């Protein structure tokens, strides 16, 4: 909701993301991330943002505008905390999905290597006078030739990616504490 409100108010003021970013001394991509819900401004930036858009922080956060309460800062920080927790949860879901995809890639590579080891180049002994066997054998040989050269790189890259997702999870858990 915060991102939608920022975008709606920015457009109603006739400002582009670039113009708003200049007024706030941030890069345009930061405004884009706010509007797309990929990040949230901190509390001081939220106040500056509300000032630039001639509105109240509570309106940015989706609350109806009422008389300012004495604990506005506490309410703002609670809402920002909820939004940050939602972003962290979304980020962890992406990390877990990426990790499982990389694990699947490693498993598939191992399975293909096992399959290639089982056939042990038996296609090399086929009768290549038969055109169908010649085509199939050539395709198998070409696949094996390319796979044996590319798969180790893909496997190592996937393992490094898996390790990085665990490091990211560890670092994220430190940040959340």
Automatic annotation (TrEMBL):
<feature type="domain" description="HTH cro/C1-type">
    <location>
        <begin position="6"/>
        <end position="60"/>
    </location>
</feature>
<keyword id="KW-0472">Membrane</keyword>
<keyword id="KW-0812">Transmembrane</keyword>
<keyword id="KW-0238">DNA-binding</keyword>
<dbReference type="Pfam" id="PF01381">
    <property type="entry name" value="HTH_3"/>
</dbReference>
<dbReference type="InterPro" id="IPR001387">
    <property type="entry name" value="Cro/C1-type_HTH"/>
</dbReference>
<keyword id="KW-1133">Transmembrane helix</keyword>
<feature type="transmembrane region" description="Helical">
    <location>
        <begin position="146"/>
        <end position="166"/>
    </location>
</feature>
<protein>
    <submittedName>
        <fullName>Helix-turn-helix domain-containing protein</fullName>
    </submittedName>
</protein>
<feature type="transmembrane region" description="Helical">
    <location>
        <begin position="100"/>
        <end position="126"/>
    </location>
</feature>
<dbReference type="InterPro" id="IPR010982">
    <property type="entry name" value="Lambda_DNA-bd_dom_sf"/>
</dbReference>
């Amino acid at each position: 909701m915060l991102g939608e409100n920022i975008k709606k108010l920015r457009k109603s003021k006739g400002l582009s993301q670039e113009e708003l970013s200049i007024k706030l001394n941030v890069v345009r991509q930061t405004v884009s991330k706010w509007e797309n819900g990929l990040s949230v401004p901190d509390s001081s930036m939220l106040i500056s943002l509300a000032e630039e858009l001639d509105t109240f922080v509570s309106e940015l956060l989706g609350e109806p505008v009422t008389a300012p309460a004495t604990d506005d800062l506490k309410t703002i920080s609670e809402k920002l905390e909820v939004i940050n927790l939602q972003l962290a949860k979304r980020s962890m879901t992406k990390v877990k999905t990426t990790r499982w995809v990389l694990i699947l890639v490693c498993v598939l590579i191992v399975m293909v290597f096992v399959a290639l080891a089982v056939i042990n180049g038996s296609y090399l002994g086929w009768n290549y006078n038969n055109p169908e066997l010649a085509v199939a054998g050539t395709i198998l040989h070409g696949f094996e030739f390319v796979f044996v050269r590319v798969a180790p790189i893909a496997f190592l890259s996937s393992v490094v990616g898996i390790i990085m997702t665990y490091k990211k999870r560890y670092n994220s858990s430190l940040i959340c504490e």
